[in-house]
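4.2 Preliminary Data

To establish feasibility before requesting continued support, the project team ran the inverse folding procedure on a target of 677 residues. The structure was first converted into the token representation described in Section 3, and no sequence information of any kind was made available to the design step. The complete token record follows.
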């Protein structure tokens, strides 16, 4: 009631106890009589506003009301303000009993001079309140302390999912779900005890589907009533859920994204530590997925990733997590592992369920996984270590031939550390003059004479010592350093060829390996043109060795570069034939001059029939296509004689010489080899 009186400043309301001492003095009283509440509280009515001639009459009337129940009638009175001025008011009186003050009388005074204005203000406020209700989408309820609904206001009743007649006078327990009722009761108690406004959110099943609401509760302590304001926040809830999903879930697959996956990994570690149990982290990478994107397009690639995510979810328990780290990389978290065989079983299941053919439109594709596995706590006790170690193990699976799984070991970690150290030292190796080109002679099988050499890069680092090419070349390829290094090799090899021919007065050829990375852009062909033009070297004295892996990508710029090299007049050699995809169509499609048999087949020709048969078939096929055949890795006299019998054209290997520096190669001599020698 005080809150109501405080809100209506146009009306003077005073409260008096049984001795006519002021217990309540509202703003209207301050404005009408000039006394502040602080000045008025505790003083008697007659001391404040009753003129001397009226005091006995007022005291008597008040006593008669208390003792005999004779009410003081509403009437016009002449009272006085703080400054002694008379005021004409219309005064009404009420009496009620409170525990705090006993009987209290409230005087409600209205200045007759301002009555019309006061009435207009009241009407304005009433209309304003109605307008607020109509313009506000919220629902306003007034509840008894026990939860009985006694009133409501709403701009539109369509926001109520039951007509008002169905719940006015009823308890919320009768019309709301049990879970929501429990929340209302709990927060109502909170509002009554702590005061102010408390709020909570809840969900309701409505005719239009699940809807979400926010309830705000304020307790009217004096009245023991509750004001409850309900707002429909379904749209905000959808937006919040969308933002949460975008922040924590992958947009394409709806799997937990990298951020959420790592958070769940951290939570799993804490839980496994608390329960003294083991967990496992699977790092998954789709084999050759980039080729799918490049050849079939990103739309097909996205559909494959979505289907892959669905399959991965089917292969694990509901308590496990499948997440997408990015690109074609996924993570699987297994918790509460009792046996390593459980991990192996899951890994096999993932491989099996993944490689079943994917049907995308009219296409049927088969994809495989490479999986790396790290175990908690054996391989790490924090999320970053476990993820890094699983990633390391995944690369071990790649190296093992893909479509398999590998567990992390300390040896793998040492390999990664070695790789990082090599990468760090490789930057600046050219500037520090640590790289050197060696040469391995190539021998004509018929004459036994040297016809050329292969340029092979060597690296001696002041920290790492001699680093094998099979260690640093892939790293140079991955980092892009191979482009500058490749130009260095080409330039050195051409200068060596110039010096070698002038020293021996003989024509030779130099074979140089080309990296796939060197084919990007148009710099390769232009650089070769400029290099041979400077020293007047004939193009046909250069051989460029290319692996089959370069050709499978099918990039247009590779085709263009190979054709430009062919038109330039240099020779093209297919290197390591038989170890890659070995598509014979490459020999038909590209202008190769030479086919080079890999050392792995040469080493087995004297002991393995399969290797011998493959070499026989390769030589026959190459000659039928007009290609020269070079056998690398010749190490014994028996291999040499057999290759000679099979019609191989050129040989190189340790039987003749290991790769040597330029100075040694220039002075290297071989008297010859013949069938009778």
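Position-by-position output of the design step:
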């Amino acid at each position: 009631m005080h809150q109501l009186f405080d809100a209506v400043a146009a009306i003077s309301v005073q409260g008096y106890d049984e001795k006519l001492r002021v217990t309540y003095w509202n703003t209207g009283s301050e404005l009408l009589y000039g006394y502040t509440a602080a000045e008025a509280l505790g003083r008697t009515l007659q001391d404040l506003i009753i003129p001397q001639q009226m005091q006995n009459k007022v005291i008597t009337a008040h006593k008669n009301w208390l003792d005999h129940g004779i009410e003081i009638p509403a009437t016009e009175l002449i009272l006085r303000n703080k400054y002694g001025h008379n005021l004409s008011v219309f005064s009404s009186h009420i009496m009620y009993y409170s525990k705090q003050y006993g009987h209290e009388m409230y005087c409600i005074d209205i200045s007759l001079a301002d009555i019309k204005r006061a009435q207009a203000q009241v009407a304005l406020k009433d209309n304003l309140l109605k307008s607020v209700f109509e313009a506000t989408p919220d629902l306003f309820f007034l509840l008894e302390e026990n939860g009985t609904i006694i009133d409501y206001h709403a701009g539109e009743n369509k926001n109520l999912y039951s007509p008002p007649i169905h719940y006015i006078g009823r308890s919320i327990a009768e019309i709301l779900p049990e879970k929501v009722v429990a929340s209302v009761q709990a927060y109502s108690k909170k509002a009554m005890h702590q005061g102010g406004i408390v709020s909570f959110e809840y969900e309701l099943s409505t005719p239009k589907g699940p809807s979400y609401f926010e309830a705000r509760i304020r307790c009217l302590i004096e009245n023991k009533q509750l004001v409850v304001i309900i707002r429909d926040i379904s749209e905000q809830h959808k937006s919040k859920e969308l933002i949460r999903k975008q922040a924590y879930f992958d947009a394409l697959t709806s799997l937990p994204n990298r951020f959420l996956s790592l958070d769940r990994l951290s939570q799993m570690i804490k839980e496994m530590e608390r329960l003294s149990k083991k967990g496992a982290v699977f790092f998954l990478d789709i084999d050759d997925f980039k080729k799918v994107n490049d050849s079939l397009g990103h739309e097909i690639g996205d559909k494959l990733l979505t289907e892959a995510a669905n399959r991965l979810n089917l292969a694990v328990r509901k308590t496990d997590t499948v997440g997408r780290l990015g690109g074609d990389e996924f993570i699987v978290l297994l918790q509460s592992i009792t046996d390593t065989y459980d991990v192996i079983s899951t890994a096999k299941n993932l491989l099996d369920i993944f490689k079943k053919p994917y049907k995308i439109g009219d296409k049927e594709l088969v994809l495989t996984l490479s999986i790396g596995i790290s175990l908690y706590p054996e391989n790490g006790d924090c999320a970053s270590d476990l993820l890094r170690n699983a990633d390391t193990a995944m690369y071990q699976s790649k190296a093992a031939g893909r479509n398999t799984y590998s567990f992390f070991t300390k040896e793998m970690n040492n390999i990664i550390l070695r790789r990082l150290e090599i990468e760090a030292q490789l930057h600046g190796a050219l500037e520090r003059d640590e790289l050197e080109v060696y040469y391995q002679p190539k021998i004509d099988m018929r004459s036994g004479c040297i016809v050329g050499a292969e340029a092979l890069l060597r690296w001696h680092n002041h920290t790492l010592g001699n680093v094998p090419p099979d260690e640093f070349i892939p790293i140079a390829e991955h980092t892009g350093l191979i482009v500058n290094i490749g130009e260095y090799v080409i330039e050195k090899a051409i200068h060596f060829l110039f010096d070698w021919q002038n020293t021996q007065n003989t024509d030779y050829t130099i074979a140089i390996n080309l990296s796939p990375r060197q084919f990007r852009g148009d710099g390769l062909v232009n650089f070769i043109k400029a290099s041979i033009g400077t020293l007047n070297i004939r193009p046909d004295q250069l051989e460029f060795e290319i692996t089959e892996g370069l050709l499978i990508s099918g990039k247009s710029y590779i085709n263009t570069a190979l054709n430009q090299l062919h038109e330039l007049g240099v020779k093209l050699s297919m290197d390591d034939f038989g170890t890659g995809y070995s598509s014979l169509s490459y020999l038909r499609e590209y202008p190769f001059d030479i086919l080079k048999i890999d050392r792995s087949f040469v080493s087995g020709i004297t002991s393995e029939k399969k290797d011998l048969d493959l070499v026989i078939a390769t030589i026959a096929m190459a000659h039928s296509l007009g290609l020269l055949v070079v056998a690398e890795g010749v190490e014994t006299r028996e291999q040499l004689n057999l290759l000679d019998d099979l019609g191989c054209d050129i040989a190189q290997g340790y039987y003749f010489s290991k790769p040597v520096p330029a100075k040694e190669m220039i002075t290297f001599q071989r008297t010859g080899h013949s069938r009778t020698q």
